[in-house]
Design a protein that fits this description.
The complex is a heterodimer of chains A (498) and B (148). Chain A is of the alpha+beta class and 498 residues long. Chain A folds into 3 domains: 2-218, no CATH class; 243-335; 341-487, 2-Layer Sandwich (Heat Shock Protein 90), CATH 3.30.565. Chain A has helices at 2-81, 87-108, 113-136, 145-290, 297-336, 346-356, 358-364, 381-397, 455-465; strands at 341-344, 367-370, 377-380, 406-414, 417-424, 469-474, 480-487. A 5-stranded mixed β-sheet of chain A has the order 2-4-5-7-6, covered by helices on one side. Chain A has a two-stranded antiparallel ribbon with strand order 1-3. In chain A, α2 (87-108) runs antiparallel to α3 and α3 runs antiparallel to α4 (145-290). The radius of gyration of chain A is 63 Å and the shape is rod-shaped. Chain B starts with 7 loop residues before the first strand and ends in a 9-residue tail after the last helix. The chains are: A alpha+beta (498), B alpha/beta (148). The interface between A and B is medium-sized, with 17 and 16 residues.
Chain lengths: 498, 148
């Protein structure tokens, strides 16, 4: 239920995040589009400015046409009045200016068919007019009234046409000016929209960032408190475990003590019984001597055979039970013993262990190879010694009959651990028994060696106590390798110190 | 053998078998003082402090004490006997028990126990230990109970 709600919440959140991201992206895209549009509008405005300039120039040239016409007229008037200046020269200048202006206007308005049409007519008329002017100014003075009239009519027509062209250009100019104003207006509008969008996207982004930051802070706080709780929970569990462990050890201790009390009775009264056999035996011997008819074979057998046999079994069993109880007691004591870690010279320790078994090793003709240069180890000396002693003892004990014993002891460091291996070529351990041999009172293979099945259980308990493990690799008849894996530096879980 | 007959041996032991074996071996050592055996702490304390034949009313005593009792810990009895103002403060107490816990032994001596003996599980050792205790008891001088 909780999980389902969480999942749906998370899905909603993810949807929301996606939407927000999409919106932000859309916002930025819109801002970019607006920026592009503004640029476009500005470029278009520049185009307008260029064409307006163009229109102004055309206007100027058309004015130039009118001006030239006026100059032509005034040159002619000068000729007629016979002014001291050279009227022919000034007329030539004015007419050249007229044609130049016409030509320029024609070039400037190639894109305008109306003006082109006008300029074509203007050009034709100007040609005719020029001839008429020139004729009226000729020295032969072929002035005819008709031609004079014609000249004046044409001149006014040219002027009218020029005026029309000017009007046309002015119309164009007005149009272009309006367009430009519109373009500038739209540019400002686009700019305003862009600014608005930018502000909106910015505000939206800030809102989203603030929201996420707030959520992050909240979840960080939650995580932190969760972490603290976790530490507390772990500490609590550890305490529970330690308490349980202590309880088990205490239980083992009490049980083994309480088991001992009745055993004292069994052994004590067995001894009393044994002591009672003696007078009984003496009695039977005396009766045999004095009145043999009073005892039969059964009574004799009971006293001389059955009773000692029964007592022997009781004794053997109670002694074994005593050893087992002592083993449990020792294991429980091991758990209670405080571990005192110290730097251990492994080479020396291993040599010492082998030397204590030297007598048995020599007796059986076993060769023991100890690899030199063993790694550094900080652990409990007594415990490590007990473990190694047991491992080597087992290797010496469980030889393959008829095969000379060969034992190798080596140690190496590996990722903060020290691995000590004791290998032998003895009788080996069946794969099925690899776990079983570490159990209390369990043994493997032929039961031809003395022992209670305590050693390896003890070794494993010790290894665990030192924060290590012990494992076995073996095949039946092919020897065995026991590997003790210890932390290179012992750390006590209880205090967390080395 | 010639220990004053007035000295009573008070044995507080919940295991009848143990009690019997202890008594047998004490007798074998030649001790013939009367042995009063109690199976629990309550009746033992009543005898020690209130009974007409008990040590408070009737002469010196030596106490053999087991620590594992059904109704109370032998340590409590020891503390009561050796406690401040107890009339039995000077009576020798031999703690005879299976517990060989170091702390337990220290505690008993701290409380004023005179001898602490761990019962050996091996019977021969057990018998020897008790007989030696008997020899020890035969030479021990037991003070008279203080008049309260």
């Amino acid at each position: 239920m909780m999980a389902v709600r969480q999942t749906s919440e998370r899905q909603a959140e993810r949807r929301f995040a996606r939407t927000v991201l999409l919106l932000v992206m859309l916002g930025f895209a819109a801002v970019m589009l607006a920026g592009m549009m503004a640029t476009l509008a500005m470029l278009r405005g520049e185009d307008r400015a260029v064409s307006i300039n163009h229109a102004h120039r055309v206007e100027r040239e058309v004015d130039g046409i009118r001006l030239s016409l006026e100059q032509m007229r005034s040159a002619r008037r000068g000729f007629l009045l016979e002014l001291p200046v050279d009227p022919n020269a000034s007329y030539d200048k004015a007419s050249a200016r007229l044609f130049g202006a016409i030509e320029r206007v024609g070039r400037l308005t190639v894109d305008n068919p109306v003006q082109q049409d006008n300029i074509g007519r203007l050009s034709a008329m100007a040609g005719t007019l020029d001839q008429l002017f020139r004729r009226s100014m000729s020295p032969s003075s072929l002035r005819a009234a008709a031609s004079e009239q014609e000249r004046q009519r044409l001149a006014s027509k040219v002027e009218a046409l020029a005026n029309r062209m000017l009007a046309e250009e002015q119309r164009l100019l007005a149009k272009r000016n309006a367009e430009r104003a519109r373009a500038v207006g739209s540019f400002y509008a686009v700019l305003a929209v862009t600014a608005l969008l930018l502000a909106l996207v910015g505000a939206g982004s800030i809102w989203v960032i603030r929201r996420y930051t707030g959520e992050l802070l909240v979840s960080r706080d939650a995580l932190q408190s969760l972490n603290e709780n976790l530490e507390g929970a772990v500490a609590e569990r550890t305490t529970d475990l330690q308490r349980a462990n202590e309880e088990i050890q205490r239980f083992a201790y009490i049980v083994s003590h309480d088991l001992r009390a009745p055993l004292v009775n069994v052994m004590g009264f067995t001894a009393e019984l044994e002591a009672a056999i003696e007078p009984l035996d003496a009695l039977i011997a005396r009766v045999d001597a004095e009145a043999p008819a009073l005892v039969d074979d059964e009574a004799r057998r009971t006293v001389r055979d059955d009773l000692p046999e029964a007592i022997g079994f009781i004794r053997a069993s109670t002694e074994k039970m005593d050893r087992l109880i002592n083993a449990i007691l020792r294991l429980s004591r091991q758990g209670r013993r405080t571990i005192a870690p110290e730097p251990i010279d492994l080479d020396q320790l291993v040599t010492g262990v082998v030397d204590t078994l030297r007598h048995r090793i020599d007796e059986l003709g076993v060769t023991v190879a100890i690899a030199g240069d063993m790694p550094q180890l900080v652990s409990d000396r007594l415990a490590v010694e007990q473990i190694l002693s047991n491992m080597v003892e087992n290797a010496v004990k469980y030889l393959k009959p008829g095969r000379p014993g060969d034992i190798a002891i080596a140690a190496r460091a590996h990722h903060g651990r020290v691995l000590i291996a004791v290998s032998d070529n003895g009788r080996g351990i069946d794969r099925r028994d690899h776990e079983r041999i570490f159990d209390l009172f369990r043994r493997s293979g032929a039961q031809d060696q003395p022992g209670e099945g305590i050693g390896l259980a003890h070794v494993r308990a010790l290894a665990y106590r030192l924060g290590g493990t012990i494992t076995v690799e073996s095949e039946l008849d092919a020897g065995a390798t026991f590997t003790l894996n210890l932390p290179a530096r012992f750390v006590d879980e209880k205090s967390g110190t080395t | 053998m010639n220990a004053p007959l007035a000295v009573n041996i008070v044995m507080i032991e919940d295991d009848e078998g143990h009690a019997r074996l202890i008594e047998k071996n004490i007798r074998r050592a030649g001790i013939s003082n009367p042995v009063h055996h109690f199976l629990d702490g309550t009746s033992a304390l009543r005898f020690l402090y209130e009974d007409a034949r008990g040590p408070v009313r009737n002469g010196p005593a030596l106490i053999l004490l087991d620590l594992n009792l059904p109704d109370m810990s032998g340590i409590d009895i020891l503390a009561r006997i050796k406690g401040e103002g107890s009339p039995l403060r000077r009576a020798p107490v031999v703690v005879l028990t299976t517990t060989d816990d170091k702390l337990e032994i220290q505690r008993c001596y701290d409380l004023g126990c005179n001898v602490y003996i761990t019962k050996p599980v091996n019977y021969e050792n057990f018998a020897t230990a008790i007989r030696q205790l008997g020899l020890f008891l035969s030479v021990i001088q037991v003070p008279d109970v203080e008049e309260s």
